[in-house]
Design goal:
Elements lengths: L1 E2 L5 E2 L18 H10 L2 H12 L4 H12 L10 H20 L8 H28 L9 H12 L10 H13 L8
Antiparallel strand pairs: 1-2
Helix pairs in contact: 2-7, 3-5, 3-6, 4-5, 6-7
Length: about 190
Amino acid sequence: MNTDTAGIAIIPEAQDGLALPADLRTDTPLWSFALSCWDKREIAAACLSLQQQGWSVTRILCACWQTSQGKPYDHSEDTTLTEWRKCVTVALRSIKKSIPKNLESCRELRAGVANMELEAERIELALAWHTLSTQSGEHTMQDLETLGIANLTAAAPTAGNTDAAAAEIHQLIAALALSRPGAQPT
């Protein structure tokens, strides 16, 4: 590794960045689903709470999507997706968190980084869609609650990490149930 005159390590820049599929579509049914979920305050709040506990919102949304489709979520991810999340989405989120929220002089910068984070999440969901749409998972006969719990458990960052998240998981499942056609609040 090279160093500059002050002795600071210079990390060589990758020439082409991460290798993404040339035909990657970001306008997918999963993206539309994610936007509709984010419009529901209870879903957004549960996702953000789980994110604070180390969960990936993309994985949560994929688990919810699969639940809404009556399919199991096996949490398998392409290496490209995992690398994108780590190198781009999480990095942008970290930068955004570092920028003061209440400082007027940083407002535009923070908003710009937040928009870049959203676009990174859109690409992340497109990569996830590519994986989900090629899986041959069959519809399950489980009820929404049972399937939702199983899918969200599969989305957890580590096994056994769902006990602390039980309230959010049930909040997500209830919101999903209410968003189904013909659903009535109880």
